[in-house]
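Bench log, entry 3. Co-assembly request; chain sequences pasted below exactly as received.
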Amino acid sequence: MPELPEVEITLRGLAAHLTGQAIAKVVIRHARLRWPIPKNLPKLLHGKTIRALRRRAKYLLVEFDHGTLILHLGMSGSLCLLPAGTPAEKHDHFDLVLGNGMLMRLRDPRRFGAVLWHSGDVNAHPLLAALGPEPLQPEFDAAYLYRTTRNKTAAIKLVIMDNRVVVGVGNIYANEALFRAGIRPQLAAGKLSRERCARLVEAIRATLTEAIRHGGSTLRNFVGSDGKPGYFQQHYRVYGRAGEPCRACGTPIKQLRQGQRSSFYCPKCQR
DNA sequence: CTTTGCACCTGTTGGC
DNA sequence: TGCCAACAGGTGCAAA
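Structure output for the full assembly:
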């Protein structure tokens, strides 16, 4: 589920409910996520007040006066707000119980997600320090992408999915953005012209912005929901459509593998 | 430095 | 229906 739009939607859904709340209790049911949840988290957070929620790449940052709780949803994670006392289900690994009688619950069947703590400047955390620009911020522009791709022989799809180049472009939206830009996923990044870099930047922005506007590919209620996604069938142009006709020209969509991930493209619309 | 493939997990899907 | 393999939207890391 969680590509950047889902994380952004989650952030927006939670922010107003968490900000200013004190932590009444921290519950760790299953500490073995991608990295272990710190054992001392309950002690660290008890009675402390949430000052703000932010997002950096696909990390959700819960800021306190004395440090930051770093959350990542991995491949299958979701967060929801429930009344305190709601019984936990199978994959509910972590709760923040709030002073207002609600709790924020992390559910993550595959456990590729993360719950970490960092005191001090969170941008200096090893997981965040080397990240590239946000795709929706002005630093990510045509000049930057052109400069960054020079002399790169790697496929453009792999490059835009590289966190050090730009964050938050996952497999689905990489495929969709390349279709919008009319660029083949296997094209060597260094061969892109300035004009095509500009098109790609705009395509990435438009694809992500549109997905955020639609509530991500998954719509959730954050308050009172059980975290089960209510599915919103996203109208993908190429992702998952191998063999089906291109929505623009009717040519069958092709599939290939790049870096152990599936890529999809229209051989006529994308060059 | 870049590139490649593995690893962490469970759930779902599709072929036989 | 059952069984099993393949695959899934992330991404850090070791090895080459």
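The domain at 142-265 of chain A is CATH 1.10.8.50 (Helicase, Ruva Protein; domain 3). Chain A has seven helices and twelve strands.
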